[in-house]
Structures are given as structure tokens and as C-alpha cells.
Design a protein that fits this description.
The chain has a single domain, classed as 3 helical TM bundles of succinate and fumarate reductases. It is built from 5 helices and no strands. The protein has helices at about 15-40, 45-50, 50-60, 80-110, 115-140. Helix 1 (about 15-40) runs antiparallel to helix 4 and helix 4 runs antiparallel to helix 5 (about 115-140). The chain starts with 13 loop residues before the first helix and ends with a helix. The relative contact order is 0.11.
Amino acid sequence: MLRSRTVPRRGWNLEFVMWVFTRVSGAAMLILGALGMIGALIMGARTQMDLATLMRWTFFPNPNHVVNSNIPDINLGWVSLYWRILQTLIVFFGVSHGFNGLRVVMDDYIHHDAVRKVLRVVILVLWIAVMAVALYIIITS
């Protein structure tokens, strides 16, 4: 049987801030995806890679994604600060959006406060670990 949660307090609290963040991060991922696709098309992706490679590059711009395409030299513009910043922002917003969704679903189904607090800490630790691994991959690729 599903029980309803208590209504959060009005004003600026964690629930409201995370509700706003979910909307902002969803819009940010769409905007960053569009910026990635526009940036790739400006750099000549229309003639250098197929649509699947373009989509992979847009949402996770990693030099290994374009190795098998017709790009003559990957290091000429495709591995730049622009793509690393774009990739970092996409990973941050995507991972944070997903883990916040996991937190909301967990709050809906777990009613014991102590278990909920422990699982929130676990989610936070997992978020930090995933972000660390993602940043390591971005920096070293």
C-alpha cells in the first residue's frame, strides 16, 4: 500500500531547490546537446561523420568516438577546451539529474527515516564516485 508523504514546507528548502534543479538540468542538457551538435556541424561533421557518430560526439565528445570516421586528424580542433568543458557540463547535469531522480523515487518508497537518511548518504557517495570517474576520463582522454 502506498502512503503519501507529508507536504514539504513552503519557501527555499532542499525539496524546492532540487525540484528547480531538475527542470534547469533537463533544459541545460537539451541546450548543451544543441550546442554540441552545432559546434560539430560548424567544424565540418556534416561531411566527416555519419549521424550516429555525430550523436555520440554531441553527448559525450570523446576522441575515441570519431576514430573510425573520415576525419583526417582528430587533434585538429576535435580535442579542445570547448569540447572538454561541454563534456564536463553534460556529465555534471546528466549524472546530477539522474541521481536526484533516484533520490526522489527512493523517498517515495522508503518510509523509515533512518533508512532514508542512510540511502541518501549512499546516493551522495555514488554521485561523487561517478563524477570523479567521469572527470578522470574527460581529463585523460
